[in-house]
Amino acid sequence: MADTEKPERIKSGIDGLDEMLHGGFFKGTVNVVSGGSGTGKTILGSQFLYEGAKDGKKTMCIITSEESKSIIKEMRTSFGWDFEELVEQGNLVFVDITDPSLRLQKSVEIAPSELIKSFKKLIQSKIEKEKPERVFIDSIEALFLAIESNYKLRTLIDDVFGVLRKFDVTSVITVGKIFGLDEMVEYGADSVIKLDRVITGNNLQRSVYVMKMRGSGTINEVRVLSISDKGMSVLAQSPYLE
Ligand SMILES: Nc1ncnc2c1ncn2[C@@H]1O[C@H](COP(=O)(O)OP(=O)(O)OP(=O)(O)O)[C@@H](O)[C@H]1O
Ligand SMILES: [Mg+2]
To answer: How many Å lie between the centroid of ligand 1 and the Cα of residue 122?
Structure first.
């Protein structure tokens, strides 16, 4: 393949991460950020949107649980990022599926697969209407937790990811470490970024590595993930003490 035919890369917005990804996410792919509680998943996805929206790109944030509802507030207190301003400027759109008006809330009356079907329809219509270049879903587990059969789970995950790929949006989707659901979600993704912590004695470091990236080489190292008042970045150093 000639160089010019290489698929376009979309910058993650995280300093140091694009180097690990050999240039960024491929345009139109589904990129999963996987890690335990408090490892930085929401910040990574929010920064992906923030950097895109500041650059004039149209972005969309899809909130699927009560826990992800406070993104606007958290990004302001953590880093001073003004998401409301980006919404006013038209570069950021929020879709909150917990909003009762959408009648999409996880409810005992709705069968889990019906919820996912409605979710697919909803994101399809929102993406068609708003035409975002970047989509962030925080997080995916609320949608899939109630699915009992692994076979069904795999099919439904592929269905939801298929909608995102169809519209050629570049998406970041978070998943927590929960009942093996994260592994199933990772199988369906085009790339997986793993976030964690490394404890050596009393030293605690955040860590990051690229678990997979379809169609691309990656830097195969565990590196330090830094979160400061300026946001998130990846340092070219090991989280393990020498
Ligand atoms: N300005 C800051 N400087 C340093 N660390 C920060 C700053 N703001 C937030 N953090 C850290 O980031 C972590 C939260 O990251 P984030 O919310 O992205 O995690 P998460 O993986 O989404 O967690 P959850 O599983 O609860 O959704 C917190 O533990 C917090 O200490
Ligand atoms: Mg989170």
So the answer is: 29
Is residue 118, in this structure, part of any structural domain at all? yes
Q: Is the CB of 34 under 6 A from ligand 1?
A: no
Query: Structural domain of residue 159, as residue ranges?
Result: 9-235
Atom of ligand 1 nearest to the CA of 67: 27
35 lines ligand 1 (CB under 6 A): yes
- State pLDDT tens for residues 149-182: 999 999 999 999 999 999 989 999 999 999 899 9
Instruction: Specify the CATH number for the domain of residue 47.
Output: 3.40.50.300
The model's pLDDT over 81-115, given as tens digits with 9 standing for 90+, comes to 999 999 999 999 999 998 887 766 555 567 888 88
Adjacency order of strands within the sheet including 59-63: 92-96, 59-63, 134-138, 170-176, 30-35, 191-200, 203-213, 223-228, 231-235
Residue nearest to atom 12 of ligand 1 (CA): 40
